[in-house]
Amino acid sequence: MSSPHSTTGRRGEVTGRMVFACLVGFFVLVGAVNAVMITFAVSTFGGVETENAYQAGLAFAREMAAVEAQDALHWNVRAKVFVANGATELDVVVDDAAGRPLKGLEAAGRLLHPTDRRDDHSIALDEVAPGHFKGRTDPVVGQWAVVIDLSRDGVRMFRSRNRVSLH
Q: Average pLDDT in the 24-28 region?
């Protein structure tokens, strides 16, 4: 008969060594899962970073001045973004305050992914008629920000940023 303090353990009996091994195993497992999650998080982060907050503040002040100048122009800019013929198409029409098409502008468009700038698409916009621009890029679906820049002689005159959902 075995005594209660016997060194020969019964099958399924919880011993101090078993508890210690389970405790160590648990923390090793938690550490391994954390290492994998940290590796995935760091390698897939495509977010925005600000390296110099002072320069970002100055850029914000310049952007606010550009917005005020843009508002003073009273331009009417209409844009359509749609998926057709195996591509995403952007169609932009620009008129002045009197409703006349604006001539002599250069236009550029971008589709910005909301979470990962590595998925952004630039759209070269060609003038097909005075004040009417069209461009195409690879087909995309989902939520995007559409940015339209209009410039004259290398100086940006107008910028529009709108959220769209493409299907």
A: 98
